[in-house]
């Protein structure tokens, strides 16, 4: 079986990256390869340093960075663990698939509905479209490592995609291939309690806490291209944003 030391060796052969960044890459790959489970502590920093032949300072710097990214979490007295909660940077416009892959998770979707039609009055208002304008609708359950994370109800301006079938795993990847990926977005976050249907789809209980996120995505020329409403499990997702005084 592949070990962390082997991953470090393979990465270091042709890498000019600092040693701590090589270790971060190796740890990401080890998590992706399921060398460590979500309920299993990583080896102690002292043990990692001894096994890999590097300093504890390097190990600590690598792990500190992964903790800041939200990939790992420190549990005082227990060690470092894979963070089973997802921290989503509210200020960064990335897709669900990109977020999951960056954390070593495997994204997939179960389709609830995939259809084409014309805008509703609300969609026309949000997307600034004329009545009767064509749109594509994508409703699905988004999974990470077989765990249902959110319900996604997206409406895309039809001219932004070559066809309804263009979206397979990642909607943003399909939009990017078509040259119409949003470059900025307005997002609104609100709390809710999952109703019976939402809870069933997310394998939760009715009344459990959830997070509703509405996103309106814009192209570089200012045209709105995406209106999406997602319902996230409150026990699995944290939204974070960096604030400053500027």
UniProtKB/TrEMBL annotation:
- What are the TM regions of this chain, as residue ranges? none
Q: Which Pfam families does this chain map to?
A: GntR (PF00392), UTRA (PF07702)
Q: Which UniProt keywords apply?
A: DNA-binding, Transcription, Transcription regulation
Could you state a single Gene Ontology molecular function term?
Answer: DNA binding
* Every HTH gntR-type domain range: 17-85
Q: SUPFAM superfamilies recorded for this chain?
A: Chorismate lyase-like, Winged helix' DNA-binding domain
Judging by the UniProt lineage, the source's domain of life is: Bacteria
Q: Which GO terms describe its biological process?
A: negative regulation of DNA-templated transcription
PANTHER family according to UniProt: MANNOSYL-D-GLYCERATE TRANSPORT/METABOLISM SYSTEM REPRESSOR MNGR-RELATED, MANNOSYL-D-GLYCERATE TRANSPORT_METABOLISM SYSTEM REPRESSOR MNGR-RELATED
- The protein depicted here goes by the name GntR family transcriptional regulator
Q: Report the source organism.
A: Rugamonas fusca
């Amino acid at each position: 079986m592949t070990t962390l030391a082997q991953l470090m060796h393979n990465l270091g052969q042709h890498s000019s990256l600092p040693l701590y960044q090589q270790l971060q890459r190796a740890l990401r790959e080890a998590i992706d390869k399921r060398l460590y489970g979500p309920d299993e502590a990583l080896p102690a920093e002292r043990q990692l340093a001894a096994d890999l032949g590097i300093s504890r300072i390097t190990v600590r710097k690598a792990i500190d960075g992964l903790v800041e990214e939200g990939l790992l979490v420190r549990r005082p007295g227990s060690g470092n663990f894979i963070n089973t909660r997802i921290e989503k940077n509210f200020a960064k416009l990335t897709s669900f698939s990109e977020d999951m892959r960056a954390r070593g998770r495997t994204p997939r979707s179960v389709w609830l509905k995939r259809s084409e039609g014309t805008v509703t009055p609300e969609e026309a208002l949000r997307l600034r479209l004329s009545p009767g304008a064509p749109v594509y609708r994508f409703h699905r359950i988004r999974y990470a490592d077989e765990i249902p994370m959110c319900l996604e109800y997206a409406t895309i301006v039809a001219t932004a995609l070559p066809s309804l079938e263009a979206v397979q795993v990642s909607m943003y990847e399909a939009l990017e291939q078509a040259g119409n990926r949003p470059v900025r977005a307005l997002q609104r976050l609100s709390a809710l309690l999952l109703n019976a249907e939402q809870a069933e789809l997310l394998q939760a209980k009715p009344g459990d806490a959830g997070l509703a996120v509405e996103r309106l995505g814009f192209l570089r020329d200012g045209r709105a291209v995406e209106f999406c409403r997602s319902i996230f499990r409150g026990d699995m997702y944290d939204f974070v944003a960096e604030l400053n005084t500027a």
